[in-house]
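Incident log, entry 3
Record: Histidine ammonia-lyase (516 residues)
Problem: checksum mismatch between cached and fresh output.
Input:
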Amino acid sequence: MQQLTVTVGRGPVSPAELVAVARDGAGVILSDDAVAAIGRAREVVETLAAAATPAYGISTGFGALATRHIPTDMRAQLQRSLVRSHAAGSGPEVEREVVRGLMLLRLSTLATGHTGVRLETAQLLAGLLSHGITPVVREYGSLGCSGDLAPLSHCALALMGEGEVRDADGVLVPAGDALVAAGLSPVELAAKEGLALINGTDGMLAMLLMAIADLELLLRTADVAAAMSVEAQLGTDRVFAPELQAIRPHPGQAASAANLVRLLADSGVVASHRGPDCNRVQDAYSLRCSPQVHGAARDTVAHAAAVAGRELASAVDNPVVLPDEGRVESNGNFHGAPVAYVLDFLAIVAADVASISERRTDRFLDKARNHGLPPFLADDPGVDSGHMIAQYTQAAIVSELKRLAVPASVDSIPSSAMQEDHVSMGWSAARKLRRSVDGLSRVVAVEVLTAARALDLRAPLEPSPATAAVVRRLRDSGVAGPGPDRHLSPEIETAVSLVQSGAVLAAAESVIGELS
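Fresh output:
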């Protein structure tokens, strides 16, 4: 059973609740307010469905076919046909956490009372989440306008007892069988329900929220990696002083610089070259400007979080029900541009933070720039290659991240017989951002791995307590210190796991407290 149950309909879903449902398998229930709001909106839809005047999405076709009035006895078929035809995705399965995230966000919109679905339909969607039933959603199919139509249609199809799903154990089964096994009954969609279930930005928003959570962790971890690199390359911490940051008052820059000061406090390595004999005027940009780059990334993530917060507070559907006024109105709120733009912004962030991390790593390996360390940090240079090819791996990832930073949201392909003639491509932006975030974590992990080896090679000089804790965490995880060449890939993967899980950050914070 789930450790946590999230109540939907007491206000916008929070990012933490999204992560709990999507990643941790939390269950879901509807609040009393949501139940009441759904009921009020449904009354409006039922009234309009019985009226002689056509209402879009209730008694008409969809998109370019909206001019056709659908008779009452064909409206159930209208909803079934909509979902079946729109469940047209192709390609690999989308990750479970993404599908659960988009299902939760669609349920959150249903709970606002602006979509007009019946209570039993919303409750069945909550039931799928609580029982761990995950519809199979395919990679391709969303243009990010009229919402994430194909991905959401695959979820709606499961509510009808059709299509394929993964059960709580990850086994692929027919949706109808999974519902029966969970004690759930499929629904026969009524007027407006098919459209209400598929017309939202929920997929791209779910991926945005998870990317923000990952980047907030990775940017603090990047500060840890940068501190280790500055320290092991005999760089100065004076450039991170708060009075220097204050004269360029970007909040992210100040936070990153303050982290670096704390991480480097009481470093014997830094202290070893503070004296009057030190003839180095200033460090390379990749060391000296780390707070400026990491800070700009933080500020961009903060902007993306603000956009995500507004989208979480939205009811994205078309047409939308206005219960207090007893009417249904068409609108364009399903357009994914606000979310698509920040998804693309964050891909730029991931690429550039990875780029500066790779440059810091590369400096360790060049004997002309690493201030007395062996070439490539090798045990016996020439016989051993050290971390030479680890940097190649970084470089390959950084090159890929630069390609992924090309925005998806500037593209648009008209669809639906030119009715939908400008689309956001937000789903595509979100899909590539997930790859970007994974790549960034791998680049930072190689920097941590390399910097730890360099700090060991600076012995008997002692690193700071915070960076020493990170080195110990690596060593305790089976990554050995300097020595003859050995199979490097497993060590890189261990470092990646420690970065992605937050263990590297936790090691540093166990000594100096939480970083900004």
